[in-house]
Design goal:
Blueprint lengths: L20 E8 L5 H18 L6 E6 L4 E7 L6 E7 L4 H5 L21 H5 L4 E8 L2 E8 L6 H8 L8 E2 H8 L8 E7 L1 H14 L9 H16 L7 E9 L16 E9 H21 L3 H13 L6 H4 L6 E5 L17 E4 L8 E6 L7 E7 L1 H8 L2 H4 L9
GO molecular function, one term: acyltransferase activity, transferring groups other than amino-acyl groups
Protein name: Acetyltransferase
Keywords: Transferase
């Protein structure tokens, strides 16, 4: 266990979503290895935990006398986990130059298929870092309990306790219930800055009379939504939902710049396969645009007020089970490639098994930056194969060396 170099006196809390946040970066081979490498990373992790001290805490569940249960974050400095592993048979090219993400990547994350709520009952750390030495590189992976932070906090930490809310016991059991994870494959698609710019221009040209500008990300996600519906061979009348995770930072006043915790809401956009295909890229992107715009400060505060009175948790496993939904998390604004442990910038980024369901996507900034965007897309085997064969979709991508 790695403990903070210093432990300030303060508090922070959050509410538990579901899977852990699992993302990691592929680094050049460092000048040191083995125990010396681990000692260096442990010292860096301890310094970072001095600032992000809630990540060294533990979740604790307590049954109350009134038939409710509280889950709280106890900042006792128990420490975060640091795991050292080796995979000498895996090289950079096996990961960064492959369109399909190899299954071995999931083994680089120490908390695969661990749910956020598990930490409250099994005394698990809320943060685990695994460093895996490969044949010619190092993969540094972080698994963070989503109860203690969102994507912004995750990447802020990667780069440098509170009033509990009573929850009915039955709801806590619903929160922690396991679900069957479908067998999916995943592809890592990259869209150059020029390609993203072209999609954005097309979407806005098609919606020339709209009252707001469609963003680059909204145009790209609309492009994906339409292509994924085609790859799934959905009938025109089939309902399809796009779940978007929307950050509240910048939308809600009172969130301090240094806030460590969750500031996220989920939005749903509903349509049919026929509508998004027939009405085109611009119309589809406009539906995503309106959903994002609808989450102003008043709506977010209203949602938060209702959540405290009636806690509800999203179960993406059931929401994504019909084979017609899409969900996107993370953000191209996260500084993924700004990390440097002292032996060079990352050469690639990948994610773990968390939230890997049919239709789940993760967004990253592209390695070339400047507006380029990468998408991790998960789908059932036949669906993903048809997506890769979709000329309209693939014409916008930049294929890796070993496609």
């Amino acid at each position: 266990m790695v403990r903070p170099s210093t432990l300030p006196t303060a508090a922070n809390g959050g509410h538990p979503p579901k899977d852990e946040a699992e993302e990691g970066i592929l680094q050049p081979k460092p000048p040191t290895s083995g125990d010396r490498l681990v000692a260096t990373l442990a010292a860096s992790l301890a310094r970072a935990l001095g600032r992000f001290y809630p990540f060294a805490a533990r979740l604790a569940a307590q049954e109350r006398g009134d038939g409710t249960v509280t889950v709280s974050l106890r900042c006792t400095s128990d420490g975060a986990e640091l795991v050292h592993a080796t995979a000498p048979g895996v090289a950079v090219a096996d990961i960064a130059d492959s369109l399909y993400t190899p299954p071995v990547v999931r083994s680089f994350f120490s908390f695969n298929e661990v749910l956020d709520g598990d930490a409250a009952f099994e005394s698990l750390p809320v943060l685990s870092v695994q460093v895996t030495e490969l044949a010619d590189s190092v993969f540094v992976a972080m698994s963070m309990n989503h109860s203690v932070g969102d994507g912004t906090t995750f990447w802020d930490f990667f780069n440098t306790c509170p009033v509990p809310i009573p929850m009915p016991s039955a709801k806590l059991h619903r929160l922690l219930r396991p679900f069957e994870r479908p067998t999916v494959q995943e592809c890592f698609f990259t869209f150059s800055a020029a390609s993203v710019k072209k999609l954005k221009a097309t979407a806005n040209d098609e919606m020339a009379t709209a009252t707001a500008t469609i963003s680059s990300l909204q145009a790209l996600l609309a492009h994906l939504w339409r292509a994924l519906s085609r790859a799934r061979c959905l009938p025109p009348e089939q309902s399809t939902i796009y779940y978007m995770i929307i950050g509240c930072r910048g939308r809600v006043g009172g969130i301090l710049p240094g806030y460590v915790g969750n500031a996220l809401v989920r939005s749903e956009v509903r349509s049919t396969a026929g509508e998004i295909e027939r009405n085109g890229l611009g119309w589809t992107a406009w539906q995503l645009n309106r959903a994002v715009a609808s989450f102003d400060e008043a709506r977010v505060r209203d949602w938060l007020g209702r959540w405290v009175l009636e806690p509800e948790f999203a179960h993406m496993g059931s929401a994504m089970s019909d084979g017609a939904a899409v969900t996107t998390g993370s953000s191209p604004r996260f500084d993924v490639f700004g990390n440097d442990f002292g032996w060079g910038k990352p050469v690639a980024v990948r994610s773990g098994a968390a939230e890997k369901m049919d239709g789940a996507t993760t967004v990253f900034e592209g390695r070339e930056k400047g507006g380029s965007i990468s998408l991790v897309v998960c789908a059932r085997e036949g669906v993903l194969a048809r997506l890769v064969d979709d000329k309209e979709f693939m014409d916008a991508t930049s294929l890796p060396a070993r496609a």
